[in-house]
Prior knowledge:
Blueprint: E1 3-6, E2 9-12, H1 23-35, H2 39-53, H3 55-62, H4 66-73, H5 81-90
Helix pairs in contact: 1-2, 3-4
Amino acid sequence: MKAVTKKNVTFAKYNSADYINTKETVITFLECALEENDPDLLLSVINDITRSKGMAKIAKELKLSRRGLYNALAPNGNPSFKTVFKLLDLLGLRIKLEQKSA
Length: 102
């Protein structure tokens, strides 16, 4: 983790992928993102989770280039459902729908 120094105070650069280290954390992170009903947030969370598992490793398993996976999961990326479902499957997850409460 790189440090950032501002006016004699040093802060470690925050990287959420550094804190996603259990299956429970992955699930909680995804569930919170899904509750917000924000596709950009969900894409960001999937990006963080993928980086926590190793982008190059996941890209290879998806039969994508590392750069291609980074581009698909970038803020302006637009991954196909096929890519997202394959990625979730690699993580041992699936999407489950429920009735929205009134």
